[in-house]
Write a structure and sequence with these properties.
It is globular, with a radius of gyration of 21 Å. Helix 10 (about 365-385) crosses helix 11. It is an alpha+beta fold and about 400 residues long. About 30% of the residues lie in helices and about 20% in strands. It has helices spanning about 1-5, 25, 50-60, 80-95, 140-145, 180-195, 230-255, 290-295, 355-360, 365-385, 390-400, and strands at about 10-15, 30, 70, 75-80, 100, 105-110, 115-120, 125-130, 135, 150, 165-170, 205-210, 215-220, 265, 280, 300-305, 310, 320, 330, 345. The protein contains 11 helices and 20 strands.
Length: about 400
C-alpha cells in the first residue's frame, strides 16, 4: 500500500492486528525468503526493483536484519520481528497519502461484479469505505470471497503445514552450531519415540538470531483430517497445540540439553503461521510446470525466486528447483481477480495452483506482488481503466526509494 500512496493515490490500509508486517511480525516468521535470485554461486543478488529492496536496506540499516545469509543454495535475510514492525511503522508514516487503520477488519463487501463499498469495523465501531480499486492482501482471499470471486483450496491432506514459531531467551546459542543441531534433532526424535514429547516436536528447528541468547524455534503442526485454515475452531486448536508444545519442549530441553539449562519462553506469536489457504481465481493462473521451467512473459510485474518448498508431511520440506534456477515472471493477470472489475490480490493467495504456491508464497515474493498490485490499483483508481504490465513497471521506476534500495 506504500507503493500506491507513493504513486499519488489516497490509500487506506486495513490491518487486523496491532502492527504492520503480516506473517513477518504476527507469526514471528524471522527470515525473509525470496528476496534474492536463485544462484549456485555465493553472493546474494537482489531480485526486485522498488520497495522490496528499499525495505531490506532499511531493515539492515536499523539493525533489524542481519545479512543476507547463505543457506545451502539459498540466500535469506534474517530479521527481528519487533524491528520489522518498527521499520514498517516508519515507512508507512512517511507516506502522507496512506491512511492506516490498525485493529480493523473487513465486515462486508457491497456490489456485484464490482466492489462499490466495503464495511470495516474496530471494537464495535463500523465504517464504510467507497474505493476506486482494492487489493486483497489478507492471505486468505477474504475480500475476494465476500465479493463473490472464485477461489480454490487444496485438500486437507495436501495443504502446506502451518508453522508455530516462538522465541526462547537465555539459551547458549553458541553451542547450537555445526553438528550440534543434528544431535539435538536426534535427542528430540528419541524423546518422541519414548513418549516424552508429542510428535509435533519432530523436525523442530532452532535458529539463533545473533542477538545475544535469543533463539527462535519453528515447529510444523498437523491439523485434523478435515483441516481448514480459515476455520476459527481449527485455528484456535492449532494455536493451543503450539503453545502446549512450546511449554513441554522448553521444559524437556532445560532438563536434557546443556544449551537450554536456563531457557525461558520469550514470546509467543500473535497467530499461527498459515502457509496456505484459499487462492483466488485470477485472469491468469500460474502452474507448477510454469514455475519449474521459469515462466517468461511480456506481462511480468514481479518475480518469484524461491524453489517449491512443499511442506505437506511431517517429515519436513520437499524441494523442487526450477530449471537453471530461472525466476518465475509473475504476470499482471495473476494478480487481477477474475469476475470483480476493481479487485486485485497480492501475497500467498495470488492465482496459482497448489504446487506453484509453495514457491510463490514466501515473504520476498509477497513484497514484490504487493508493490505491483498496489500500483495497479492506484492506476485503475486514477484512470478508471485497467493498467497493462508496462504501466505498472513504469510506476515502479517512479517510486524507487533511496539508492541503496535499488537493485542492478
Amino acid at each position: 500500500m506504500v507503493a500506491a500512496a507513493r504513486a499519488g493515490a489516497h490509500t487506506v490500509l486495513v490491518e487486523r492486528h496491532g502492527a504492520l508486517g503480516g506473517m513477518a511480525v504476527a507469526a514471528l516468521v524471522h527470515s525473509i525468503c525470496g528476496l534474492y535470485r536463485l544462484r549456485s554461486e555465493p553472493g546474494a543478488v537482489l531480485a526486485h526493483r522498488g520497495l522490496p529492496g528499499e525495505l531490506a536496506a532499511r531493515l539492515v540499516r536499523a539493525g533489524a536484519a542481519l545479512g543476507p545469509v547463505r543457506c545451502g543454495r539459498l540466500d535469506v535475510l534474517p530479521h527481528s520481528p519487533p524491528g520489522f514492525a518498527a521499520v514498517a511503522d516508519t515507512l508507512a508514516s512517511e507516506s502522507p497519502a496512506l491512511e492506516t487503520h490498525l485493529h480493523t477488519e473487513l465486515a462486508a463487501s457491497h456490489g456485484t461484479g464490482r466492489i462499490e463499498a466495503v464495511d470495516v469495523y474496530c471494537r464495535g465501531a463500523r465504517a464504510t469505505i467507497e474505493p476506486g480499486a482494492l487489493v486483497d492482501a489478507s492471505g486468505d482471499a477474504i475480500l475476494a470471497v465476500q465479493a463473490g470471486a472464485g477461489t480454490d483450496q487444496a485438500s486437507a491432506t495436501r495443504l502446506q503445514r502451518p508453522a508455530f514459531i516462538f522465541a526462547l531467551h537465555t539459551v547458549d546459542a553458541a553451542a547450537l552450531g555445526g553438528d550440534a543441531r543434528l544431535r539435538l534433532a536426534a535427542l528430540l526424535a528419541e524423546a518422541v519415540h519414548a513418549g516424552e514429547l508429542e510428535s509435533s516436536a519432530l523436525g523442530a528447528q532452532f535458529r539463533p538470531t545473533g542477538r545475544g541468547s535469543e533463539v527462535y524455534c519453528t515447529a510444523d503442526l498437523a491439523g485434523p483430517e478435515d483441516f481448514d485454515p480459515t476455520s476459527p475452531v481449527h485455528l484456535g486448536a492449532l494455536e493451543r497445540t503450539g503453545r502446549r508444545l512450546a511449554v513441554s519442549l522448553t521444559a524437556f530441553l532445560r532438563a536434557h540439553h546443556s544449551a537450554f539449562t536456563r531457557a525461558e519462553i520469550g514470546a509467543f506469536p500473535t497467530r499461527v503461521g498459515i502457509r496456505e489457504s484459499r487462492r483466488v481465481r485470477g485472469e491468469i493462473t500460474i502452474t507448477a510446470e510454469a514455475v519449474l521451467r521459469g515462466l517468461e512473459t511480456p506481462d511480468c510485474v514481479a518475480l518469484g525466486t524461491w524453489p517449491m518448498e512443499l511442506r505437506e508431511k511431517p517429515t519436513g520440506p520437499r524441494w523442487r528447483y526450477p530449471n537453471d534456477d530461472r525466476p518465475t515472471q509473475i504476470p499482471l493477470g495473476a494478480l487481477k481477480v477474475a469476475g470483480v472489475a476493481n479487485l486485485w490480490t497480492a501475497g500467498r493467495c495470488l492465482s496459482c495452483d497448489h504446487e506453484a504456491q509453495a514457491a510463490l508464497r514466501v515473504i520476498g515474493t509477497c513484497f514484490a506482488t504487493g508493490q505491483a498490485a498496489g500500483l495497479a490499483a492506484a492506476w485503475q483508481a486514477a484512470h478508471r481503466v485497467l493498467p497493462n504490465a508496462a504501466d505498472v513497471r513504469a510506476q515502479i521506476e517512479t517510486i524507487l526509494g533511496p539508492e541503496e534500495g535499488r537493485w542492478r
